[in-house]
Amino acid sequence: MRKFLTLFLGVLLTASQLIAQTKTVTGKVTDEKGNPVPNASVMIKGTTKGTTSSSDGSFSISVPETAKTLVVSSINFTSQDVSIKGSSINVSLQSSSSSLEEVVVVGYGTQKKKDLISSIATIKGDNIKEIPVQSFDQALSGKAAGVNVSLPNGVLNNPPVIRVRGANSISGSTQPLIVIDGVPTFQGDFSTNASANNALGSLNPGDIEDIQILKDAAASAIYGSRAANGVMLITTKKGKLGKPKIQYDFSTGFTKPFNIFEVLNAEQYVTVKNEALRNLNQVVVTGQPAGAPLFFLDTINGKQVNTNWADEVYQTGISQSHNLSISGANESTKYYFSANYTKQDGILQTNSFDRKQIRMNVETKATDWLKFGGNFNYSRGTTFSPSTGSLPGSAFNTAGSARLAFVTAPNVSPFAANGRYNIIGIDNPAQRNSFNQIGRNRNLINSGFVNPVMVRDLNIISSQINQITANISAEFKLAKGLTFRSQYGVNYQLVDDRTFWNPLHGDGIQTISTADDGSAFNVYGKYDITNFQNILTYDFKLGFDHNFNVLVGHEEQSSKTDRYGAKRSGLFNTFNNEYQGSFTVNDNPVSNTITENYLLSYFGRLSYNYKGKYSLSANIRRDGYSAFADGGKYGTFAGGGIGWTLSEEKFWTGGLSRVINTFKLRASYGQVGSISSVGNFGSLSLVNPFQYGLGYPTLSFSQAGNKNLKWENSKKLDLGVNFGILRDKINVEFTYYNTDLSDLIINVPQAPSLGIPGNTVQLNAGAAYNRGIELNINASIIEKKNFSWNASFNLATQENKVTSLADGVPEIIGITGLERTNITRPGISLGSFFLAKTNGVDAATGRRIFVNASGAEVLFDFSNPTAAQRWRFRDGTVAPAIDLGRDGYVAGNSLPTVYGGFSNTFKYKEIDFSFDMYYSFGNSVYFGSRAGLLDQRFWNNSTIALNRWQKTGDVTDIPRVVFNDNISNGSSFPIDANLYSGNFIKMRNVSLGYNLPVGVLKKVKISGLRFYAQAFNLFTITNYPGADPEISSNGADALTPGVDRNTIGQARSFNFGLNLTF
Amino acid sequence: MFLTIVTITVVSCNKDSLQPTLQTSLLYADAFNSPSVIQQGVFGVYSGLKNGNFLGGRAIVYNDVRGEDWLNITGNGVTALGVWNYSITSSDNQVENTWTVGYNTINRANIVLAGIDANSSLIPSTLANQYKAEVRFCRALTNFYLVNFYGRRPFNADAGASPGIPLRFTPNIESSIGALSRGTVAQVYTSILDDLNFAETNLPILYPGGSASDSNVVRAHRNAAIALKTRVYLHMNRFNDVITEANKIVSTIAPFQANSGVTHRLNPAFTDVFRLYNLTESIFSLPMSNTNPPGTQNGLSLYHNAEFALNPNGILATASWPTTDSRRALVVNNAAPFRYSKFNDDLNNSVPIIRYSEVLLNLAEALAKTTTGVDSRALALLNAVRQRSDAGFTWVPATNADLINAILTERRIEFLGEGLRSLDIQRQNIAYPAKGSLSAVQPTTLPYVWPIPASELLYNSLMTPNN
């Protein structure tokens, strides 16, 4: 303490001396080309005193006579120390955009990009902060080679599907580990109800400085057992040297659905459905003759009922976002404070997202040898949503609004003539309950599932995440080059999910017992990640040319989940719509869980560089994980690489070096793991308590454990070349990667007759590989005073193949809701499509032509009253019914084989224009919604049904319509007629900005003001007939990619905003 | 220095954290280590039966709607459309789930049987035998339903010579190849009878609390095993055995009742059987409650009141079911769709598995089929069932054939919605009659029984399909 006081007094004393004598220094800050650099910070080294350069780059600062050095820095330039000699100093800053000069955050430390020999992709926070999304990860599509980020639907704050170099697990997560400021964070949808809520929405995209994605083993092995899917390191902003910077960002805009299915209008519907009835020619409704029409147009108040249900489901949503940050730094302290509020309405009615968030990042150098830092983030993210039917597992939910929008009959109305909701028996509970259907108007038969308007208006589904992430760190400089860093981080979130189902209609209805109608579920979850890490780093040189960096560390992380939920039903006062209301019945608890896991790790890294020419890096990590059985808790993971910078060699001279100024070869290899598929107690065989009736407590076998379970194994090879052309105007990175996956955990299906719970046991049995090439090109194509053009292009190919599953497991079926859509078996790509083969429509009879396992054509005629006779061979003899299990075939792969992005930024004087494209090729998409759109039950049809077969000789791909036929078009089991190419090129983001000229800024005394307009998902080039080929009904599930079944498409958004800097 | 100490302390403390405590489950190894957990294991087998995908709901529904008395209304493939119209395929969820839940129950039973044997010192041997009897009763019931869904042909088609289902007798608690071929239908019936005979010997005659107590309805007791045997023998056309078994629990003359064990008799008010569950008419039922319901889209009331409606040309059209019958009063609406309110609550309706009226009609049918002419006791049993619901109606069959037809008709009325119709059709090896727009399904055709689940064929290399 005394030491500290002395130091403190010393500083004061020095400071007072500094004020004594001063002189004025003037100068100009320019870039490498001589263009002025405005707003550059000019600080007296070792003090907090400084100024900024004006719009023409000039500055004037009074400095004490004793001052020797100025520190000049600016965003996008390398900070430079300048000796004070004389009274006029011109400073030429080096642009840091020359990518090889950048410092890159790597696991538990940083490295100069120049010395990197691993595959790390970098995305700058500024490139994504204005994209109108809810969580930053939704904005990453096409931004980095080998990192495929696709949006599965247009539901707000629904997590995107992120795959780094392909899917690297079969049963577990395929998402990378996400680490924010050194602490692994919550990722994924934490909501337990239909209102999606991605925990990553708690991070304000505007707070992100940059994102590093560790792709190969040399980079990721230091994360050991969690690195198989890559690691995403997010660094939040810190203050930058200079005077305090106050920035306010505002944007507002609107969002709309696109490519909504065109369905039949009321007249067309009546025509098609009655034709289907005639074609069936059987009694469908008792009392009505065979073939008689059952569908009729209706009028309400003199107006024909012609409801476009999409209008009742979709909307144009508006959004606003405010972001205020105050940041700055002096020699000793950096600070960054921000507050964010955003409120967004989705493309579905009653779908909304809002976030309130506050961040404080502070870092201070207490002494020469001690640095403290702390980051604090609080966020409250709330979503409201209808039952969308678009989240994984919900594709066939009766109240799923995506399907209701196209399935409901257009000749029925949302409201009856008396203005009340149009449902069967609204005033008659017995009828209301037993039907629980929309009213039929004049139709004589069921005309829809639930009334979309009534469930929209009366049901409430919400999820709220209150999240605090905080960490503090201390860094001790123990000796020259030797530092010890200790960091303690806490991520804590409370998730409050609420569901209210009204007692009149929809999900809240019990079929007959009206006393239980109307339910409320509240689920409350507490999630805790506590992380403690200690790292010793030693940087040293041997001689002049041998540079070493050695790191050893320890980390432990505890993750706990404690969640409970309650349900009440039997609402007896309809003014209530909350759990606390008037219910008669307290039901069983819902979504209860209490579980934990623990990870204890030791790791180390050695980096070595000789003369900047030869580099070597090796990582090792030993992880102990609680979920594994005794004796198998620990695993060791390692990776390393070598690099050779040829351009540093003497022979790299002359013409060659002028064209290719940098050139580096690199190779890395290592073995990492994945533990995401293992349940917290996955190694144990368990019995669970429940009850039989009332008063009979039960215990029953609930989990067949496997004490030999271990992490999944991922061996990653990476061979690459990096080169810079024309003074690094063009940087190219080309990589070949090969990931061999083994010990993949397979939920090995057991013969169901064994009676094992879930019919599966987890075994480390599978093997697969992902391989391909990556190409990344960044180019400063034009760098003129008034005009610049930067472009970047990335491409990745990905060949995925499963090489083995488990003994006795020839294949794994992938299920979308109720139907088998995908298959995984050795020799094919993960989650390929498995469909019944069809061969169009028979022009003579209008029947769907199926092709059975032996290649014979089987024609299907639903109108045959004898089920066994509906299937017939070409020669008219009765054929066995098509059975997907027996007759299905692998119809295509569901994972893209080529994907990437193309970005361009143009600046002309005060105007900037940029666009980002995202593309994906090589996969098919199963357009399951098409099966529904052509289903011949009461369901409304797509307008393509107007091309249906009607008479002999009609050549069409739409079979003859036969009422209640749910087989010909793929509703009963999926058929290949609904499989389409999923290729697309998408204009993800376009932005046009205007910066107020410097002259004007000076007058209004602000440092910057930019207005911009922006469009998200402006257009898509594709042949896919659905809403969007970038879609996934099953989210990120590895076994069932590429399915488009009753899922809402994406949003197209237009935003207008401003960035104001003081 | 200080930090080093902190680090070392923390690290050394947390080695224990690699062994987190289970909070809400029990280790399998601890599942039989006290009398109370052993009993909970036994109740766990019953709860397997009670699963909404099995006898607590859907399996009952499937056996009903395969018959001719119901019409599908909603066209919903999830709720038995394919079962109703015989279009169900091997990969269908309904085919898969029934099988899975059934075998899960059998495995629970086998686990408990092995667990009791391995821990026999913890409970008295009579209690151990009682538990084993309860569990084997559940296993017999499960095998009976499974063989009727999945056996290639009913027992009576070929005396059980056709492929049945795999017979599992050992616990499976970890990954196993576990290939096992199908036993013949006859072998399955032998196993069922073996289990039921053991059950009859070792089950309690009466649980404490009296005949009408909950335990004597929702747990197996001696008379329940006997009652089930009357059904099983009927399915094997072993009519004399039906009579022998039934006579153990049916008095010779009216009023018919069981004179030992639970005092089974017909409840005077028919509807009460489905409202007040603990009646002596209910020989074995599966209990339901708000906090232990059959689950979404599994409850019987949903199918009877929403998904399906009574076929106007089915049993409703039978002249011998006049509106004076209290069972007919449960038909809702005077016009199509005719709903049926025998079950009227999504959560709370107990599911009757076997009722005393079935034993009476099983006996009546066996008597009729082992005699010529109109057996007077058979007729008395038949009229006892009828007149409980319609005092003014008396069956007066002229011939043996008329008597048998009357008994079969009575069964359709009495057990409408209780899952016996398909069983009755199959044990007679007769066609499923035409209904609605569907033609009859002949016993020789494939749709007559269900396909073997695709997953069983895939993962059990010794399994063979129904073809």
What does this structure look like?
The complex is a heterodimer of chains A (1062) and B (467). By secondary structure, chain A is mainly beta. Helices cover 8% and strands 47% of the residues of chain A. Chain A has 11 helices and 54 strands. In chain A, the strands form 11 sheets. Chain A has a 22-stranded antiparallel β-barrel. A 5-stranded mixed sheet of chain A has the order 10-15-16-13-14. Chain A is globular and about 105 Å long. Chain B has 467 residues and is mainly alpha-helical. Chain B has helices at 2-13, 35-50, 58-65, 81-84, 93-118, 125-150, 155-158, 185-202, 215-218, 222-235, 239-249, 300-307, 356-369, 376-389, 400-414, 421-428, 454-459, and strands at 26-27, 70-72, 282-286, 308-310, 331-332, 339-340, 351-355. Chain B starts with a helix and ends in an 8-residue tail after the last helix. β33 (686-692) of chain A pairs antiparallel with β1 of chain B.
- The percentage helix of chain B is 40-55%
Strand content of chain A: over 45%
Of all protein chain pairs, which has the greatest interface, and how many residues does each chain bring to it? A-B, 110 and 113 residues
Shape of chain B: globular
